[in-house]
Amino acid sequence: MKYALTKRAWFTMVLSSIFLLGWAWKMSAQERPLTIAIIQPYNINAYYEAVEGFTEQLHRQLKQDFQTVVYESPEGLYSAMKQRQLTANAPEIDLILTVGTQATAEVSKHVTEIPIVFTMVLEPERTVQDTQNVVGVSVNIPVELQFSMMKEVLPTAKDIGVIYDPGRNARFIEDSARTAAQLGFRLKQFPVTSQKDIPAALEQVSKEADVLWGIVDNTVYTSQTARSIIQTTWKKQLPFVGTSEAYVKAGALWALVLRIKILGGRQSAMLASQILSGTSAASLQETIPRKIGWIINLRTAKLIGVEFSNKIIDRAWEAYE
Fold it and tell me: What residue spans of the chain are helical by DSSP H?
């Protein structure tokens, strides 16, 4: 009987120890703040705005405390991950936020065990390979929406001119041509391979198209070419749909734009919150912009003879004069 009691006491002690160890581990895990690594290239104002929106929204949604560690490049992240392997004192990374196309492409290739949320990425289907740990927010403005805006601003327009580098945008232009046809437009294509080809292409656009559609193309639309493109469209009285607010401010007729803090920050924070609360990245879907508006230039409209409706003016996020 004495032996039975001793055995029972020993068994109870073991169970109690296991329970206490489990409780202590659980409490320790709960007390440890989550660590989010942010890959944010410096000197790009929109990226700062996106990260600010991300952290603000995550504080609202996530119940658990978290800390952020910002790296200018993926190399800083890789160094931290290596340090984690060498010492137990280094913080564990629970999630990675990549800001911009280049950072997202690089990190998604090399990090497969940690969830990654991306933001400020154009055409993520080209940037991110088929990985199960990556999800994010695309900054693509649907082509259908862009062409629908053209129909509203320029109801008599039929031919849309686009200057592009086939090496960068051939497939995008092919898809856009089909979309244009569905909406009753013809997409007139003017391929170029270098900036020296742009003046001749602009001349052809002014003769064959009713509007010049600007797209994201690093061969055509750069800080070196912007002024000459805008001045040519003024001279030819050719409506030019810019690629950003900066283009409209400089003289493009209008542009559809995003609210970076909402898109780049808050929408990506919602995805991060779900992942940090236990949802797998693989079960989530890439999201598209929810807040899209337009910026217009009234001075350019007067210069080239375009009249905006009161509806367009009243609902514009910004109207430059």
Answer: 2-31, 45-61, 74-86, 101-110, 124-127, 143-153, 166-182, 198-208, 226-235, 245-250, 260, 268-276, 298-304, 310-315
